[in-house]
């Protein structure tokens, strides 16, 4: 039997697993840059949840996926042009319970939304808020006369 000694291959004078790349540490530097620029906003984003915003000719929609949240623990309010969404999720861990609260605020232009006809539906963990457009904000087709 013959024993062969294994040596780690070198790349640019360093062992292959430890080779210095110009991109090493870039992610940490980018994180520091955004933390410095956004300040406390990054820390506050832990209690926020992602939403999808989309619209059609008749309404704008806000859609949020909130699995595990009971319908009674949802809050939807439209106050002075700001849509406030809140949710609370409770987990049972052994004999103690842990509650996590989420909040999100979205600015809504009051000139385009009929605030008295806003509706919300929660089905299969998906919250959909419908913001109907005012008649004057709906797109109109204008015919062009040929002279």
Concise account of the structure shown:
With 147 residues, this protein is mainly beta.
> What can be said about the biggest beta sheet?
4 strands, antiparallel
Return the CATH class of one domain: Mainly Beta
The DSSP helix count reads 2
Total strand count, please?
9
CATH architecture of one domain: Sandwich
Mean pLDDT: 78
Give the C-alpha Rg: 26 Å
How far the N terminus sits from the C terminus, by CA atoms, comes to 99 Å
* Multimerization status: single chain
**H and E order:** EEHHEEEEEEE
Please give the order of strands in the largest beta sheet. 3-4-9-8
Helix/strand structural class? mainly beta
Task: Summarize the amount of helix as a percent range.
Answer: 10-25%
Q: Identify low-pLDDT runs.
A: none
What overall geometry do the principal axes of the alpha carbons give? extended
**Strand composition percent:** 35-45%
CATH topology of one domain: Immunoglobulin-like
């Amino acid at each position: 039997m013959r024993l062969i000694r294994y040596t780690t291959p070198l790349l640019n004078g360093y062992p292959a697993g430890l080779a210095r790349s110009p991109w090493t540490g870039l992610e940490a530097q980018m994180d520091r840059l955004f933390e410095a620029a956004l300040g406390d906003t990054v820390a506050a984003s832990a209690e926020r949840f992602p939403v999808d915003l989309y619209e059609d000719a008749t309404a704008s929609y806000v859609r949020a996926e909130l699995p595990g949240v009971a319908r009674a623990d949802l809050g939807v309010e439209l106050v002075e042009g700001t849509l406030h969404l809140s949710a609370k999720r409770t987990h049972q861990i052994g004999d103690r319970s842990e509650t996590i609260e989420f909040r999100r605020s979205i600015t809504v232009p009051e000139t385009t939304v009929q605030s008295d006809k806003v509706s919300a539906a929660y089905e299969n963990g998906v919250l959909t808020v419908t913001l109907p457009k005012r008649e004057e904000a709906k797109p109109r087709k204008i015919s062009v006369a040929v002279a």
